[in-house]
Amino acid sequence: MSQGKNKKSLNKMVRKGNKGYPIATIAFYGPTNNIATKVVCAIIEYDGAEAEPIQKGFCASDLRKSEQILGEIIDFVAENRAKSVSMVEGIIGCPHEEGVDYPEGHSCPKCSYWRARNRYTGDMLH
Predict the structure, then answer these.
(1) d(CA 76, CA 60)
(2) Are 16 and 9 in contact (CB under 8 A)?
(3) What spatial distance separates the first Cα and last Cα of the chain, rounded to whole Å?
(4) What are the two backbone dihedrals, phi and then psi, of residue 7, each rounded to the nearest 5 degrees?
(5) In this structure, are residues 106 and 100 in contact, taking their beta carbons and an 8 Å threshold?
(6) pTM above 0.70, yes or no
(7) Which helix (H) or strand (E) segment is 10 a member of?
(8) Helix, strand, coil % (nearest 5) of the chain?
(9) How many other CB atoms are there within 10 angstroms of residue 27's CB atom?
(10) Backbone angles phi, psi at 58, to 5 degrees
């Protein structure tokens, strides 16, 4: 299956590497490591700056395959004049926020896949 136009454009932006600040960061989250139902894109203006503005997108299907969502990310990056784009290829954890959607220090009750699992490698912790 061929990639869509926006997926190709976004991958091209990432492949350009570090061109300096501002930097756009893109991360995908999902209930398992197979489907991304949340994407977060943030802009880091300069070294040491807080990541803002932040744009979040949600969808029941895999966001990594949504040309509309990927187009919105590209627009957000362009609007904020990001010179560099950094994107994690895989899914790096549960789409629910600790302290917002469930109590801090606990596992998400809705996403058992991530319980006791390293969110970057997918490996079990113990």
Answers:
(1) 21
(2) no
(3) 37
(4) -65, -45
(5) no
(6) yes
(7) helix 5-15
(8) 25, 25, 50
(9) 17
(10) -130, 150
Q: Which residue has the tokens 């990639």?
A: 3
- Distance separating alpha carbons of residues 51 and 81, to the nearest angstrom: 14
DSSP per residue, 55-96: EEEE-SS-GGG-HHHHHHHHHHHHHTT-SEEEEEEEE-S-SS
Q: Which long-range contacts (CB under 8 A, 24 or more apart) does 50-58 make?
A: 51/25, 53/80, 58/95
Q: Which has more confidence, 12 or 125? A: 12
Of the pLDDT bands very low, low, confident and very high (cuts 50, 70, 90), residue 64 is: very high
Yes or no: say if 108 and 117 are a contact pair by the CB < 8 Å rule.
Answer: no
The DSSP H or E segment spanning 9 is helix 5-15
Residue with tokens 């503005």, as numbered in its chain:
53
Which among 22, 88, 29 has a CA at the least distance from the CA of 58? 29
CA dist., res. 85 & res. 48, Å (int): 17
Q: Looking at the predicted structure, is the pLDDT value of residue 71 above 80?
A: yes
